[in-house]
Design a protein that fits this description.
The protein is of the alpha/beta class and about 325 residues long. It contains 14 helices and 13 strands.
């Protein structure tokens, strides 16, 4: 096992100890980090979305900023703005909170269109434009956004172009009863400052120290060598093409999908499957690796028709159908 693999494994173990019952969420956050992407987390309040992101940032030796999105937010509140310096008689650019390595965009669907546009440029181009000038963002730059699916008042649906910029769209369910008990015990222990909680942190720090930006970049490079066979590569491509031409597999699906996934989905699925295999300790990708990430990669990239929505279908339902129709390699 390489040194960087050991560090990422220790990071995953520590996050699992702090974010109880959310192993898949932890794993997918790490996949997003190593894939140089952005993630959108959706779930009801109180499901540790913000805690997971903040805990991840505490384990990495990098800059972290949190932006609370509200309907009255302005683009300059995110990007920064030119400030007039009277002593010099000139303007100076003051960076906004987007200039960080990890950015938590809390309740992102509360932001209006102009703010969404500024964030889209940052996510897509890794830069912001202010006063006709472009300013580069850090090499390690990841937006982790949350949205609440319950409340609709004062919210704005994210445009499809911006949704496509998210590597993964992760949905979080309510915990089962056993997990609920563990959460209660964990919170009590944290409130009392019990030794067990400190030991988990000390074990992580003593084993690897905080994860550095160089460690993350090294892990990204190592993941690239994960092998994908020709057969599995063809399977991956066929899955994406099936979202655009579902009639090749089932004529009834043609009326259910308005738009299929873009080539960006192919690249994302390939990256995420490789990283999933790497985290599982393999240097080759299997169909199980593709299936482990396919819902999170595709659910926001398939636009359903009115007929499908009227039938109560979701993107996840369509993805499940396509997995049955597209033959395994």
């Amino acid at each position: 096992m390489s040194e960087v693999k050991e560090k990422i494994g220790a990071l995953q173990k520590y996050l699992d100890s702090r974010i109880v019952g959310q192993k898949e969420l932890v794993k997918k956050l790490i996949i997003t980090l190593l894939a140089d992407g952005h993630a959108l987390l959706e779930g009801a309040p109180g499901l540790a979305k913000t805690k997971a992101i903040k805990t991840l940032s505490e384990c990495i030796r990098a800059n972290y900023n949190r932006i609370q999105f509200t309907p009255d937010l302005l683009p300059s509140d995110i990007t920064g703005s030119d400030i007039y310096i009277a002593e010099r008689g000139d303007f100076e650019f003051r960076q906004g909170p987007i200039f960080a390595n990890l950015v938590l965009a809390d309740e992102i669907n509360r932001a209006p269109a102009k703010v969404q546009s500024a964030l889209l440029e940052a996510m897509a181009e890794r830069q912001v434009s202010v006063g006709g000038k472009q300013y580069r963002l850090p090499d390690l730059f990841m937006v982790l956004a949350t949205q609440n699916p319950i409340e609709q008042e004062g919210t704005y649906n994210l445009p499809e172009a911006q949704l496509d910029r998210f590597l993964m769209y992760i949905k979080i369910d309510q915990p089962d009863i056993e997990t609920e008990r563990k959460i209660l015990k964990l919170v009590r222990a944290e409130q009392l400052g019990e030794k067990a909680q400190n030991e988990a942190w000390n074990e992580f720090i003593n084993k690897v120290g905080k994860i550095s930006i160089e460690d993350v970049l090294a892990a990204r490079h190592e993941v690239l060598s994960t092998h994908v066979s020709e057969g599995l590569e063809e399977y991956l491509v066929q899955l994406i093409v099936a979202t655009r031409h579902p009639e090749k597999y089932d004529i009834s699906l043609k009326e259910k999908i308005l738009y299929g996934a873009s080539p960006r989905a192919t690249i994302a699925l390939d990256k995420c499957a490789k990283i999933n295999a790497w985290l599982e300790g393999r240097n080759f990708v299997t169909p199980e690796d593709v299936h482990a990430v396919v819902y999170d990669v595709l659910r926001h990239r398939i636009i359903l028709s009115f007929e499908a929505q009227a039938d109560g279908l979701t993107s996840d339902d369509i993805i499940g159908m396509l997995l049955k129709f597209v033959p395994l390699p």
